[in-house]
Design a protein that fits this description.
CATH superfamily of the largest domain: HAD superfamily/HAD-like
Number of helices: 14
Strand order of the largest sheet: 3-2-1-4-5
Number of domains: 2
CATH topology of the largest domain: Rossmann fold
Length: 296
């Protein structure tokens, strides 16, 4: 893990600005296909949720795509899906026993690099059966993504924004996706060449990734672009600026960044007031309560 993080720790800035960008759902329109076709079918299959498949699908889609938890790491997202299912009256009336994954929850609490390598190390240490099951599921997800997710281009205005920013800012991919998948997708569409580094889940959380590089740049010169509250929290916990890409309005968000906000950031005019106006709009796209729990 230390060697992987050294890639960021040893980063040598080429410019005084840094623009960090999330990948899935932010730069690439891959969230829907990855979750609906790769993650969720494997959740249902590997965790025996066939008797409640329609509820499992709805719960996982809410957590990963349509809620304030959009974009979180796959392992806590899995346990949150189980929590929603356990509390769902329709599931309870079917007398279905939602998987109890205490050892996975414990591992999530104490581990920051929530990826397959860290999970493999924990399994080697403990031999825990639940963790083995979680690893099998995660590896199956990666295999499905590698087989299915290709030829999905960046959102409109992403490439234009990268080309516009590249002459005056370093560009960092800051993601919770496995690094191999990130590198494949950014190389496939010939935009990896704009980046100084591509950081995935093996590099630590997004907060940790940003912490490793932020002090290499002057105050106010680092901007995180993301489509999830976790991206915003990673930026703000490091004292950095955030630009939101609104779920469902990604093209509009990137067009506005390309046409207006990139230059505001470069000139120093992207203020906390402007940022907050954008965040207020952004947060309306990410509810905390699933639709089936709303009072009728």
């Amino acid at each position: 893990m230390q060697d992987i993080q050294d890639q960021l720790r040893n980063l040598q800035p080429a410019h005084e600005f840094l623009v960090a960008i999330d990948s899935d759902g932010c730069a690439f329109d891959t969230m829907e296909v990855k979750h609906k076709e790769c993650f969720i079918p494997n959740i249902i299959n590997h965790w025996g949720l066939q008797p409640i498949a329609k509820y499992a699908r709805a719960a996982a889609e809410f957590v990963n795509l349509y809620s304030q938890w959009r974009g979180i790491n796959r392992f806590p997202a899995l346990t949150m899906t189980f929590d929603l299912l356990s509390a769902w009256p329709e599931v309870q009336r079917r007398h279905f026993q939602v998987p109890e994954v205490g050892s996975l929850r414990d591992w999530i609490k104490r581990e920051t690099k929530l990826g397959n390598p860290a999970l493999q190390a924990e399994i080697a240490r403990t031999g825990d059966a639940i963790l083995k099951k979680a690893l099998n599921w995660s590896e199956a997800v990666n295999k499905a993504i590698a087989e299915m997710v290709h030829d999905v281009p960046p959102f409109p205005f992403v490439r234009e924004s990268l080309a516009a920013v590249y002459p005056w800012a370093d560009i960092l991919v800051c993601s919770a996706t496995p690094s191999a998948a990130l590198e494949r997708e950014w190389e496939e569409h010939a935009i990896a060449r704009f980046t100084v580094a591509i950081a995935g889940q093996e590099h630590g959380s997004k907060r940790e990734q940003l912490a490793l590089v932020k002090d290499k740049y002057p105050p106010g010169k680092v901007l995180m672009i993301g489509d999830a509250l976790g991206d915003m929290q990673a930026a703000h916990s490091n004292g950095l600026l955030f630009y939101p890409v609104n779920p469902g309005q990604e093209e509009e968000s990137w067009a506005e960044f390309f046409q207006q906000y990139a230059e505001l950031f470069r000139s120093g005019a992207y203020s906390r007031k402007i940022e907050q106006e954008l965040i207020t709009k952004f947060e309306k796209f990410l509810p905390a309560t699933p639709p089936w729990q709303k009072i009728k």
